[in-house]
Amino acid sequence: MLTSLWLLLSLAVPVQGSYFSVSCPSRRHCQRALLSNNDIMLHCNTSGAQWHFIFLQNKAIWVYNPASTSNMETMPDGSLLIRNPLSSQTGFYSCRDQEGRKVVQYDIDFQDVETMHITHKDLGQKPLQNETLSLGGKELVFTHWEPWQDCNRCGKPGERKRLGFCYIEESLEKPMPCWLYLGDMKLWSHRMRPEMQVETCHVPCTSLSEEHVTFDDFELSENSESAWLTCPLGSIYRPITWEANSIPLTWKGQLSGQDVNTVLDASNGGSRLQVFQGAIYECFLQQELTARFNPRSKLDVLASLNTEDLQQQPGVEEAWKGKADSVLKGLKLMLLLGTGLGLLGVLFKLFHPSWGRRRDQLLVVK
């Protein structure tokens, strides 16, 4: 199936554009909060780049070889690709040139996407409120909101989302992402988690193209009767929408409980969709059609195969007619034989008693 092929290819080599690109000016030190389980690329524009990094939960132990970490890879241009980053990989990432000079450093807080708080403005749902911690002072925990992403549809009502990250602000100090601030301190509260907020939007269409559209036609699982569909190049950092038989699948429908036949995976911003019944599913990335899927039940597949077989073999119908004629002739012959045998039986019964009486009479005469 194409789904399996796509999965294997995506694991084997990074697909251009499937990750979120993060850059920082040369010789600078940049701080960023991101989400776990979503691929990122840290840029380092130098040949022979050497990456060193520290995971804060490992009590500041430097690692000098990204290849020793299974989800990291240094790219030919010197950038560092991190697939499905873990929240435990929060730390400092330093890129150096061949001479050992620092080119750029990233302080990255991978906040746990599984704890993300999701709200929809149209449903009256509220984001998390600010709270105060007591870690020796009065530290304020708040959500730092990223800009709204583009509307995921055009010409029709759509949705747009924005991501929010947990930050801690200390008096007279610059705010920091929560787990960069805490370091290896073991502290967690219900308030300390990322957020995603969604609202309805409506924007006009511009000229769009439908290039590189993936099509997948496959059978639903016999055990669960469901399947996961993945929108190619999708990311929580990009606007995505799905349609089922041309009907939009929205966060509002899911959060309100109206959409029960599909599930948008919040951990990747809806890049993955779980479906439970056959339909034509289409995903749009940045308002452009990217993929079309046609999952079907086993009964639908069998019915389709039977129809295709009859269409692809013009002589099948004639062959069946010939077989039916042969069977009918055979039945007629068997019917004639049965009728003949039945008549013989009747005649035998009719004549048999008279022969018996004659035999008795002859015995009496003797």
TrEMBL record:
Source species, domain of life: Eukaryota
Compartments where found: Membrane
Signal peptide start-end: 1-17
Keyword tRNA processing: no
Keywords for the protein's UniProt record, in alphabetical order: Glycoprotein, Membrane, Signal, Transmembrane, Transmembrane helix
Residue stretches making up the Ig-like domain: 204-294
Chain coiled-coil ranges: none
Protein name, UniProt field: Family with sequence similarity 187 member B
Biological source species: Sus scrofa
